[in-house]
Amino acid sequence: GQQVMQIPQYQHVQEGEDFTTYCNSSTTLSNIQWYKQRPGGHPVFLIQLVKSGEVKKQKRLTFQFGEAKKNSSLHITATQTTDVGTYFCAGITGTASKLTFGTGTRLQVTL
Amino acid sequence: GAVVSQHPSWVICKSGTSVKIECRSLDFQATTMFWYRQFPKQSLMLMATSNEGSKATYEQGVEKDKFLINHASLTLSTLTVTSAHPEDSSFYICSAKVQGWSPLHFGNGTRLTVT
């Protein structure tokens, strides 16, 4: 079945440092979505990428979809303590309606 | 918009009893809802896809007789964990989408503890 892996599993940074999480799918994706889950909370949608090579920005967050549509990345510039949480990518294959979530990257930010 | 309400937020039950979790889309109609299970520090694992007016589609390895799903209306899906055991203790989260590839909107989740 489809597998979506993320690296790293965990990263601890100091506030102000940059952070990147990478997402790799075993199959070509129709689109990819990113979610953030705060500790004790539920996943919250961040963004969706559909086109090959697409890059989208949300303030300090930059999302990229690979040319082959099998990988994606999320980069956070100058992290803040409010960025703490687990970041999940989630992909859709073909015309399927269900999302397969990645393994997640847990980000810890300290002062 | 696109608010999903899930109840209860947490429940403790004794082994052998059944627990029902409700998931409601408050301001939109959801023909499809999804039920996920999440263990601590792990990813979300899709359990089943709930379709309004028809039987749920279960993922491989998920016992449909143990995890009963009912999607009786366009705004309500329920998950009943029957004859719960301690290994069923987990965080259960429902989600819904408006249509097609639109993003998922998650409920707040239900933390189930079976003693």
List the helices and strands and how they pair.
The complex is a heterodimer of chains A (111) and B (115).
Chain A: E1 4-7, E2 10-14, E3 19-25, E4 31-37, E5 43-49, E6 55-58, E7 61-65, E8 71-76, E9 85-92, E10 100-101, E11 105-110
Parallel strand pairs in A: 2-11
Antiparallel strand pairs in A: 1-3, 3-8, 4-5, 4-9, 6-7, 7-8, 9-10, 9-11
Chain B: E1 4-7, E2 10-13, E3 19-25, E4 32-38, E5 44-51, E6 57-58, E7 67-73, E8 76-81, E9 90-96, E10 105-106, E11 110-114
Parallel strand pairs in B: 2-11
Antiparallel strand pairs in B: 1-3, 3-8, 4-5, 4-9, 5-6, 7-8, 9-10, 9-11
Principal-axes geometry of chain A comes out as globular
Tell me, rounded to a whole number, the average pLDDT of chain B. 92
Rg over alpha carbons of chain B: 13 Å
Poorly predicted spans of chain B: none
Biggest sheet overview of chain B: 7 strands, mixed
Number of helices of chain B: 0
N→C terminal distance of chain B: 37 Å
The low-pLDDT segments of chain A are none
Cα end-to-end separation of chain A:
41 Å
Count the DSSP helices of chain A: 0
As a percent range, the share of helical residues of chain B equals under 10%
Tell me the number of strands of chain A. Answer: 11
Question: In percent terms, what proportion of residues of chain A is strand?
Answer: over 45%
Strand content of chain B: over 45%
How many E-type strands of chain B? Answer: 11
Largest interface by residue count? Answer: A-B, 24 and 22 residues
Q: Tell me the major beta sheet of chain A.
A: 6 strands, mixed
Oligomer: heterodimer
Helix content of chain A: under 10%
